[in-house]
Amino acid sequence: MSNAFVDWIFKKFSQWLLHENSPPKINLSNFDIVAKKIQMGDVILIEGRSRISTIIRHITFSRWTHATLYIGHLSDIQDSETLKRAKHYDNYQEDEQLIVESEIGYGTIISSLSNLKNYHLRILRPRGLTEEDAKKVVSYAISRLETQYDVRHIFDLLRFLLPWGIMPRRWRSSLFQHNALKPTKDICSSMIADAFQTIDYPILPIITEDYKKELELVQRNSRLYTPDDFDVSPYFDIIKYPIFPIKTAGAYHKLPWLKDVFGEDKEHLNMYGAKLDQFFQSPGFAVVGASTDRNKFGNKVLRCYVQNHKKVYPVNPNATNIEGIECMHHVSDLPKEVKSISIVTSPDITNKIVEEAITHGIQNIWMQPGAESDVAIQKCKDANVNVIADGACILNVLGFKENSI
């Protein structure tokens, strides 16, 4: 086959492997804090969403499918030859935060740290690494720029999952051939492992005994390293910057937990999120069953809306004013801008409220815990009304504060 055709096949194959699923709306990692705290020489582990990530996850049994090396800003590079090579490779600004990575279809490249903003990340910091050695690690990584990515290496590792004896010899791994260490091709973890091994920094060394029974270290074949090995290494400190930090004892009690919904039930969670999004799109809201008693649930739900700066109307046939807001006596009295209502009544009253709400053109109904009625739920479904009635509480969703207003 011609080289042009082989290159075309490789390009299409790489594009297929790199196809990614959509990123989550909110990440577990706080990228802004990561960008502020990261240091030259840190290894960044990434939970990938591509097809190649799925293959690596299958091989390594780890969520971390890609590794990059943080090299800082161009202004941090003091070695003139290294800086010249870095600038020659790509035109980044002096204050741009940069990484070096080996990516399928591209080889070893310089990228912007900002490209990782929508990924779940983990920072691994080499313990005791001197500033001088950090610069050497960065220089080595930059010296590998434009090295091709070793796609075959992925499948060499995959072969370790298969019985050796049943495979034809020509299909067996090339990892231990005599030229296996020749730096003509990279993968993400092997390039970074080579960089650290140039300064004799340990990752997962082999520990042996010499003839005097004294312990000594032997470097591993860098091509056997995977992103997870940096995570397992006792010489790299795990640095985490979660989106919800726990800075003081017991702070986890104040996290904004969504009760009665479990992440394992992905389909339900996605559907639940869509229902909430639709519910809160209304320009106005109402609490049917609002109470003048601050100790009662109907009053707390009303105050929860107010705390979250939402336009809300209390509905109670026996009150004229609740929490300083004029009270409506019936759902039919509500202005047309109200498309979403929360019901805080007994189930038998809920049935009547739902009928009135459907007639009035209410599009979203949230039956708060204790107000649910199977008959009312079915009426909502028959009328194509968005109904939330699975025990979820608006106080948990919006975050009610008892001591606030």
Provide a concise account of the structure shown.
The protein is an alpha/beta fold and 405 residues long.
Structural class: alpha/beta
Q: What is the typical, i.e. mean, pLDDT? A: 83
Low-pLDDT runs of 5+ residues are 171-184
The percentage of residues in β strands lies in 15-25%
What form results from the Cα inertia axes? elongated
- Give the full name of the CATH homologous superfamily of the largest domain: endopeptidase domain like (from Nostoc punctiforme)
| CATH class label of the largest domain | Alpha Beta
The secondary-structure element order is HHEHEHEEEHEHEHEEHEHEHEEEEHEHEH
Mind summarizing the main beta sheet? 6 strands, antiparallel
Q: Give the number of helices.
A: 13
Radius of gyration: 30 Å
Q: What's the β-strand tally?
A: 17
N-end to C-end Cα span: 76 Å
Q: How many structural units, i.e. domains?
A: 2
CATH topology title of the largest domain: endopeptidase fold (from Nostoc punctiforme)
Quaternary structure classification: single chain
Q: Helical proportion?
A: 25-40%
Strand order of the largest sheet: 4-3-2-1-5-10
CATH architecture heading of the largest domain? Alpha-Beta Complex
Fold and architecture overview:
The protein contains 13 helices and 17 strands. The protein is α/β, with parallel strands linked by helices and 405 residues long. The chain has two domains: 3-239, endopeptidase domain like (from Nostoc punctiforme) (endopeptidase fold (from Nostoc punctiforme), Alpha-Beta Complex), CATH 3.90.1720.10; 256-398, 3-Layer(aba) Sandwich (Rossmann fold). It has a six-stranded antiparallel beta sheet with strand order 4-3-2-1-5-10. Strands 12-11-15-16-17 form a five-stranded parallel beta sheet, with helices on both faces. Strand 15, helix 11 (347-360) and strand 16 form a beta-alpha-beta unit. Helix 5 (131-143) packs across helix 7 and helix 11 (347-360) packs parallel to helix 12. The longest helix is centred in the N-terminal third of the chain and has 16 residues, at 3-18. The relative contact order is 0.09. Mean pLDDT is 83; it is low at 171-184.
